[in-house]
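Standup notes
- DV: blocked on the single-chain target, sequence here:
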Amino acid sequence: MGEYDALSGLSQKACETVYSPLSADGNGQGCGHNLLGAASFGAAVAIKRAIEAGELHGTVIFYGCPGEEGCAGKAFMARDGMFRELDAALTWHPGDTNEITVGSTAANMQIEYAFKGVSAHAASNPYDGRSALDAAELMHIGVNFLKEHIKPKESVHYSFSDAGGISPNVVQPAAKLIYMLRSDTVINAKKLLTRINNIAKGAALMTDTEVTITQLDGTADMLSNKVLECVLYDNLSAVGLPSYTEEELSFAKALKETYNCETLPGLQTYDIPDLKEFVIEKTENGTKPVNDFVFPYYTSDAFSPGSTDVGDVSRLTPTAQFTAVTWPSGSPGHSWQNVSCGKSSIAYKGMLLAAKVMAGACADLMENPEKLARARAEFEKTAADGYDCPIEKGVVPRAQKL
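- DV (later): unblocked, structure below
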């Protein structure tokens, strides 16, 4: 699976250690999806050539998956039946560790609330006006009070996408908010959405305005597959990690000094005592600029508060993923530092590593049908409840600048 989308507001010159946007408010690859798609395509090409040479037997499919950021492209594809035909799905993500991704992620839903009121002169006849901006603000206050009463694995994020205009002397007739809500499962996310929708309706009632509620997208929680994770780990361990030049390490060190990171790297470092000791030793207590080792694989039901539309794929076919080092240790997600690394030799080395790992894992699965059978058997148990797509029927993808 490939991803291509960038993030707004993250324009940055490549290989710089200071914030240097190429253009004001421009886009940038703050999540490394340029690398993600290239490595996945590279792996698919390698397998295709092996099949054509008679070295492997099977079918390899490369899925172009647009809009993971702010659109959930794979969720729309999954809702409409894609991925079901697969024996297995493999992917990766750029990061600061060489590590198998384990456990689950949060399901999420992204909703737009558009309030419509009546314009009026704010001084002469405000009584004739009905402020959509008042409604939006009241909704936001209500949601903030709600946050005290949601579950530990739930969160709510927002943006005012339209505040009605820049003139304070006008009763604003229109205003929009976008909310992203997360929970541990799609079912719980939908329950949380009902509560937020009721707050929006209450805000409209209080201000005598109207509200239109429109779903933008959503993603399902990730379903892990330990059989496939082991196949990826075997290949990640066997391929051989890249070495780094003094110039590359100096660049990573200089970039690392531009952000604060007080935690050790790794998805499970703080959950497993033996792993924490291992990471402390390998990273020199978190001070090394690049994590030049493979994290040990521990099966786990760990929960990540973030979301990915890979979760929707995992509900339709056995799925596994991993991370490969493409930026310095601790580099913040969705940051200009990540964009700066996107065309660096460190990133390209990680990209090639990821392509080799996926190609090797795919070859293993084609050569060992029993592994695919075990992955399928595990999937049939963990996915027994079926796929509850978070995106309602009738919702279509739309371009967003998020």
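- Follow-up: DSSP finds eleven helices and 13 strands in the chain.
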